[in-house]
Design goal:
- This protein is α/β, with parallel strands linked by helices and about 375 residues long.
- The chain has a single domain (about 5-175, about 235-365), classed as Rossmann fold, CATH 3.40.50.
- The protein is about 25% helix and about 15% strand.
- The strands form three sheets. The chain has an eight-stranded mixed beta sheet, with helices on both faces.
- Strand 3 (about 45-50), helix 2 and strand 4 form a beta-alpha-beta unit.
- Helix 3 (about 95-105) packs across helix 4.
- The longest helix has 14 residues, at about 320-330.
């Protein structure tokens, strides 16, 4: 484990900076909107955004990358300008991964047979894991940025991903704040109350709102492209007999992230081709954390959700510990990984600590940080 090397963090790339263009691609049965930058024969990089965002979240990063890269950044289904297509949660993040996989050979994006380094942020980290499991011969490396645990989000008690209850209670669409969902649907750009998208961006996506800078409006607009409803965000809730009374349904995004449907740990460890993995996370992340403010079990332990049955019955999910344990197994099975922990950084290292993030990406793709 490390916090990043000073030589990498301090490196200043002298290449010309990237500018992206929009492409519309028919792939996997839907119309996908894709940001593309760099020459067609450049070193291939695929950027997969997180939940309640879009490819626009990568624009601040693109400005810092050298033009020697070929960068492709799609809007996932139900986000940005891509079709609002339903998400079958019973496939975990498989619908998203299939959409992204279809872009690998789509005309005009990558050179024929390209094997990109895949960068996944949050939910996108889970999509990147699924893509590697399904297409191990097409991935040159993974950069997992604050990724969802390989055991999904919520509802597990230990480093092995053991279910807290038989139905993984406390996960899925029923965990979403209904006022936040309503404000997304209403395109709320205000800053009244903690559930406004703007305030969620400031308080949860980053540790210091000042790090958003002049990109705050761009990022907020990106959040507001999120399609809401039963087939998208958050999805359908299912009643549970166990605390807190809700479990994952079969439709929509938060259910696709739930451990009932998304559990790739064992598949990741046994994948035949094991490209190098760089795992970058912020030490002050409040979304993907062993003390996540989005994990109902942890909120219950704080008294914020009534009726919590206690740590013996419903401990908070050790998200970071789970990811490390799985990557340790990945390394023991022949792979390699590097963990980079950024002190004072929240859920979006590429926005909050761009110099360190760019250095790690360039090291992974094998492009010098200096001209």
């Amino acid at each position: 484990m490390g916090s990043g090397h000073m030589d990498r963090a301090g490196a200043v790339c002298q290449h010309a900076r990237m500018r992206s263009t929009r492409h519309t691609i028919q792939a996997n049965g839907i119309t996908q909107s894709v940001r593309v930058a760099g020459p067609p024969d450049g070193v291939p990089v695929l950027l997969v955004h997180g939940n309640v965002s879009s490819s626009a979240f990568w624009e601040p990063l693109l400005r810092r990358l050298p033009e020697t890269l070929r960068v492709v950044a799609p809007d996932l289904r139900g986000y940005g300008e891509t079709d609002i297509a339903p998400v079958d949660a019973t496939r975990g993040l498989g619908d998203f991964a299939d959409d992204v996989a279809a872009l690998l050979d789509a005309p005009g994006l990558f050179a024929s047979g390209a094997r990109p380094v895949v960068v996944g942020h949050s939910l996108g980290g889970g999509v990147a894991m699924r893509l590697l499991v399904d297409h191990p011969d097409r991935v040159a490396g993974l950069l997992l940025e604050a990724p969802v645990s390989p055991y999904g989000f919520g509802g597990t008690r230990d480093l092995d991903g053991t279910p807290t209850t038989p139905d993984f209670a406390g996960t899925g669409a029923g965990t979403a704040n209904p006022d936040f969902v309503a404000r997304l649907a209403a395109q709320d750009r205000g800053e009244d109350g903690p559930t406004s998208p703007r305030n969620v961006l400031r308080a949860a996506y980053v540790a210091d709102p000042a790090s958003l800078g002049e990109d705050e409006e761009l990022l907020l607009e990106s959040m507001l492209t999120t399609a809401t409803g039963d087939d998208n965000y958050p999805g359908t809730a299912l009643a549970s007999a166990h605390w807190p009374g809700t479990a994952a349904g079969k439709r929509g995004v938060l259910n696709a992230l739930a451990p009932a449907w998304f559990r790739v740990a064992d598949e990741l460890v046994t994948v035949p081709a094991k490209p190098p993995v760089t795992w970058v996370r912020g030490e002050a992340d409040v979304i993907v954390s062993d003390t996540s403010l989005f994990d109902l079990a942890y909120l219950g332990s704080l008294g914020a959700v009534p009726g919590w049955p206690g740590a013996a019955d419903c401990p908070p999910q050790p998200m970071v510990g789970q990811t490390r344990a799985v990557l340790d197994r990945y390394a023991a099975a022949g792979g390699t990984y590097r963990e980079v922990v950024l002190p004072g950084c929240g859920h979006s290292p590429h926005l909050e600590r761009p110099a360190e993030f760019v250095a790690e990406l360039l090291a992974l793709v094998g492009v010098p940080a200096q001209a």
